[in-house]
Request: fold
Amino acid sequence: MGKIYFESFAEAVDRNRPRIAEVKQELENAGVKYVMAAWIDLHGIPKTKPVPMSDFEPLCLGKGPQFAVHSISYVPELSPADSDQVVVPDLDAVYICPWDKETAIIFADLYWEDAPYNVCPRQALKRAMQEAATEGYSGFAGVEPEFIVMAYDEEGRPVKAFDDDPAVGVRPRRQAFGYDVEYSIDSMPFLKEMIDIIEGLGWNLHDVVAEGAYSQFELDFHYTNMLEMSDRLVFLRIVLKEIAKQHGMFVTFMPKPTVGDWRSGAHINMSMQHESRPGQNIFETEDGSDWTNESRWAVGGLMAHAEALTAITCPTVNSYNGLVPRVGGFEGGTVTWAPTNITYGYNNRSAQFRLPQSRHCIENRAADMTMNVYLAMAMTLSCAVEGIKGKIDPGAPTDFDLYDKTESELADLGIRRLPRTLFNAIEALKTDKIAERVMGPVMRKSYIEYKNDEWERYHQAVTDWEVQEYLRLY
Reply:
């Protein structure tokens, strides 16, 4: 991997200079008239100021729009008297918008006073990748994004977009949505457009899955390096929302919108290569028949920091409503297939870390689409590298159904519980050494402060459940 993290603003701009004319010509030939250099905020949400193509060269030289990031993105460490942040577009991350080919989004990095801005998640991932390369490793990932497509009914209430029974009245037992041909056919006007767009982007879409909840879908497209995968996931969230709007619908990435629904996850499938041997997955033996010691040690590193990692990969109060073993009212049973314990197993979907039978990668099943994917990838890679360097033993695999074990049985086996709430996860993040290195003290402090505030605001709300449970009982 070539150098991707630049300690100075001038160095980052110099990287762009030789390619500006070439990329500009390609965009103009494609009909692009407007450019959005998009930086990533603390929550993983892209932000921008559109500019005309006539300003493309100044934009690439860091002379485009500036941003008072600290005024709007939950990072109050700077004041109104401080300098603004400057974007430097990454010319390896250019995406022409399929729904509007006059517009291009270019992912960008933030600099502040000539250095990388210390609350720029994309810079944090680049730094983690550069550190891993120094140790001789590069990280690759695929993500399995899940989401629910919704619409508003005549009274303005959100309802499932692909659900042909009335919201009220008789709702008889019917075919489960998962894998169903009839519901897949009903969804095809939306799915066709999505499939065509992703195929046009060259992401090598493998399939689309009608998932367990009504109107829930999962995508499976090819893996790539961690930075490109992170950019793709953010762009995908934009794409899905824009397509849904054109069909009078909207997409939610909320992990658990209703009690009886299956959780929407975003499993991270991570593999690694040696810098000196690109193209060779170090998690599989040379003949491809077995898992290597490096794969076990990487799992050990991930398990050692699992609680803090989960604070990043499952970052909302709602995330933890999905990390439970059983829920009544599911179509097809009560087992959630969601991880609840910090362990690993060969093809065991009840474990947090699964070593699949079809590919040599480590699948972290405790992740959802609300994560800041740049921070999630940076933590994942850094934990795995630490595990390999330290030869951290993850212990014996748990190749049995964890849902059938009692709390005392799991304790006897030395298996830790995943954080049960956002509060538990954030408490672990406060003291985790890799998190401090990956995020830096300022970004970690801002993240923890916001998530603590989120938790406190959640506990100030009185929910329908509480009213139903307590109003007349006491």
Summary: The chain has two domains: 9-117, 132-470.
